[in-house]
Amino acid sequence: MISKMIRYDIVLYAGEQERFVNELRELGLVDITTTGWEPSERDRGLLLDIESHNKALEALAAFAKTEEYQADAEAYASGAEAYEMYTIARDKRQSLQQEVARLRKLADDVAPWGNFSAEDIERLASRGVAMRFFMAQAAVYERLVAEPIEGVTMAEVGRTSAAVYFVVITTDDTPIVIDGQEVRLPEKDAEQLLAEVERLLAEDKALNATFSRVAASKELVEDECARLKEQLQGLKVGAMAGREAEGELLILEGWAEADTSERVDKMLEEYPYLVFERRDATIDDEAPVKLKNNKFARLFELIGSMYALPKYGTIDLTAVFGPFYMLFFAICLCDAGYGLVLLAAGLGLLMKGGPKLRQAAWLSIVCASCTVLFGFYANSFFGMAISDFAPVIKFLDFQTQFFSISLAIGVFQILIGMAINIWMKAKLFGFTSTFGLLGWFIILFSGAVAVGLPMLNESLTIPFFTASSPLFYGMMGLGAVLMLLLNNIKRNPLINIGAGLWDTYNNITGLLSDVLSYIRLFAIGLSGGVLAQVFNSLAIGLSGLSEGIGDSAWYVVAVQILAASVILLIGHGINLFMSAISSFVHPMRLTFVEFYKNAGFEMGQRSFDPVRKMK
Where residue 179 falls among pLDDT bands split at 50, 70, 90? Predict the structure, then answer.
């Protein structure tokens, strides 16, 4: 559900802004509207500082887990000093790493020339011995050697698969043309360059002491980052406040939860130089949204937030789509063995993942547990039929029975969505505004009960409500009247008929497309199960175990079992990975497209984010 909000319109003496924002921060219950805030140049610099601090904290957390971290390092005196030293050391490390990469590449380029001395080359040049350095393909070099030039000496220095490196020596200034690429040697050879690399690496390693001290000061850096965020908070409030009386008065718009509004009222009533007005938020207000669900539904807020929060004044669909999402996930994965693997992963994440991943861990555990139950009912355990080991239990024949069941599930969820939409419209605009949608709901519900249920299972037939019963025709007629004649009671009936016919076309095509989308549940579950069976067959067939053990030596059997295990591990690992992604994504699509559309979902502007202490 959506937490009820109270709107506050506050008029404040401008000189009290900073103090007032600090009071709100201590209270931590009021969201001040800053929607539409555009940062100035100064504000952008503050934003960059905050982002840099956050990245620094991430880097320090990663560094603290490495072997280079010195746990006994002394912390700095302040967060500002620690961050400054971090940026200096970070920039120094980046510079060193770039120079090391450059020198290593240069050493690779120079390596074919071996060891040389630039001073000796210059000394020879001063005595009239000129040395020029070339590289060419092997065939070109062999031709140059076969056709010597008078007064010119050529000597091979090195060779690679791509080229020959050679030196051309002359004793006069006679110009010569060599068919090759002339190279200018650096001042140092490869050995000297690599020695320089080692020196730079040692200098880089020494920076770990600085990083260790900064990592030991991580809490101080977090405090500094929180201070910057609070500073930005105050800038936003001041920038978006309305100003009156030549800037002497500030007008603020704030929001608080109804459950905590008494504490807000008390704080505002006691604050000097301030007047305020409060009222209940309405659907027409751009009120921030805060969800308030039970422990089970709260798990699926993680899924809903990937699309959007609901608009204030409408309905939160989290508690409704949550059980469906869990079921859809289980259907798509459709294997008890895979469910157990994900259950173990979820438990591991819960124990070692930390508080930030707790919600994701519980969501994994809930969905995996449902997968285990459904996978058992669908008679699949790592692609093996459970019925082979428990023949007395009646399992679901997924391949032959679930196609129609998936359509039935789709119709059921769409009907729930339409019912929610009708209820929401009636609440906001009156019951008469729902007649068109109500007519469609009656027609679809009647058809599903009278025609769909008998098609799904003859034992579900309702004797007094079949496709040929008077009650069925009466319900269909009522739906048609509401849909065609009363879709807008303020409009001319003839116009209603035209609009109703047009809506009929759109609704038929739309509903048909929506219902058929649920076939993906059957298709994904079936494809994953078939792939699991294929990998099982490959493991048994390729390892030779399909022919039985017989009189084979123990080491032969051991090799066969090992080969089968490797194939099973790789095959089921790939299948589990692909199936898990599909099981996560496709139920989400059914929720956000088919269900949200039929439920009339409207997205909210923003979430409830009160002015508060950042740490």
Answer: confident
Q: Check pLDDT > 90 for residue 543.
A: no
Structural domain containing residue 494: 430-517
Closest to 7 (Cα-Cα) out of 25, 28, 33: 33
Residues 494 and 529 in one domain: no
pLDDT tens by residue, 10-46: 888 888 888 888 888 888 888 888 877 777 777 888 8
DSSP for 546-591, written as a single string: GG--TT--HHHHHHHHHHHHHHHHHHHHHHHHHHHHHHHHHHHHII
- Model confidence, pTM: 0.77
Domain boundary among 517, 544, 571: 517
- Residue in 5, 615, 611 with CA at minimum distance from that of residue 267: 611
Domain identity same for 300 and 381: yes
Q: Are residues 169 and 226 in the same domain?
A: no
Residue 112 gets which letter from DSSP?
Answer: G
Q: Are 156 and 180 in contact (CB under 8 A)?
A: no
Q: Do 532 and 573 share a structural domain? A: yes
Name the β-bridge partners of 11.
251, 275
- Which pLDDT score, from 0 to 100, does residue 98 have? 93
Q: pLDDT tens digits, residue range 296-346?
A: 898 998 898 888 889 888 888 999 999 999 999 999 998 899 999 999 999
pLDDT at 541 over 80: no
Domain count across the chain: 4
Going from the C-alpha of 218 to that of each of 8, 72, 86, 230, 418, the distances in angstroms are 38, 14, 11, 18, 52
Count other C-beta atoms under 10 Å from residue 359's C-beta: 14
- 265-291: buried (b, 16+ CB within 10 Å) or exposed (e) per residue? eebbeebeebebeeeebeeebebbbbb
- Specify the amino acid at residue 356: K
In a domain, 386, yes or no: yes
Whether residues 228 and 313 share a domain: the answer is no
Residues 513 and 529 in one domain: no
Q: Could you identify the residue written with the tokens 């504000």?
A: 43
327 shares its domain with 261: no
